[in-house]
Amino acid sequence: MWKFENPVQICFGQGVFAGLHKIIDKRPYCLVTYDEPYFATLSEALVSRAGKPQCIINNITPNPDFSDLSETCARFASSASQDTVIVALGGGSVIDTVKVLASCPDGFDAVRRFLETGHGEDQLASHPIIAVPTTAGTGSELTYWATVWDKTSQKKYSLARPELYPSHAVVDPELMLDLPKALTISTGLDALSHALESIWNHNSNPVSANHAVFGATEMIAALPRLTGDLQNIDLRSRVARACLFAGLAFSNTKTALAHSISYPITLKYDVPHGLACSFTLPKILDSVIGIDKDCDASLGRIFGPDLKAGVDDLSALLDTLGVSTQPAQYGIQGDEWAGMVATALGGARGQNFIGTRDRVLTSLTA
């Protein structure tokens, strides 16, 4: 028995951003984006077509944190009406922030209480979301959850509500042309992790596996080439499409062990999320070979029939992109690393992983 569901309407292609005002369709809207010249230009273009928004919120920083969200939610609550559409224009942090805003009835307190206790969901609000990703990696434009951080308490939370599926994902590769190399790599590897983790996952199904195989294969083929030709719109389109398919895959499975390991690394050592969740992929792949025939079959479509050679190929890909697979390179030493892996196995995302504890610990801590 299995099922696959994703209600997001996808608009993909060069120039689709120009039609965003038609999706807004004269409804009152709030625009959430970054405070940077590039996004100011995009915002002006949208406003010229869609009209003046109720508010523009542009104080977004990487990895939305409790302290920032309190102020942001207060700004939104003071301007928005019950029928406000929220447009997320930016990367994963913007889209995750918008999902928090869409849940806020009159500020951040109710959302915070729900995150910390699991109670009070019936008190949360719901606003329609239009997601316009400007990076190819997050996949948040296709999911109903948001990653929220409490850096003071060194905790990561997931705000998960079916109401948080965006109504539309507007994916325009032209918006990604000016991404710098480092961000192109880290976001691309985040998407690769989404694809692979949805395969070695208890929640995998034939549809998610097909999406994952396509997404991973395309990302492996196109990302290294794109890093040497950042203005190539065809390669940008391939990487954006790969991210889209990876997002469809993990929208139904959620992530697994690599993401579970990544959260404390990002919190404690400030390692970019895409690197933190991808440098373990080769060793996790090695640990899962032979565990499940369907998993092996899907991985074989990506790496070929010799999955041991696939481990080496995946390591070589990361090396080509300048990403070390050694925990020590990220500041993590011996016993701490073993403890992180063991803890991650017991986490919510770690429990999605189909591998065995002994093989994982042997592979990752050897």
Please tell me about this protein's structure:
- The longest helix is centred in the middle third of the chain and has 22 residues, at 206-227.
- A hairpin with a 4-residue loop joins strand 6 (145-150) and strand 7 (155-160).
- With 366 residues, the protein is α/β, with parallel strands linked by helices.
- The protein contains 15 helices and 8 strands.
- The strands form 2 sheets. The chain has a 6-stranded parallel beta sheet with strand order 1-8-5-4-2-3. The protein has a two-stranded antiparallel sheet with strand order 6-7.
- The protein folds into 2 domains: 9-174, Rossmann fold, CATH 3.40.50.1970; 180-365, Dehydroquinate synthase-like - alpha domain (Dehydroquinate synthase-like, alpha domain, Up-down Bundle).
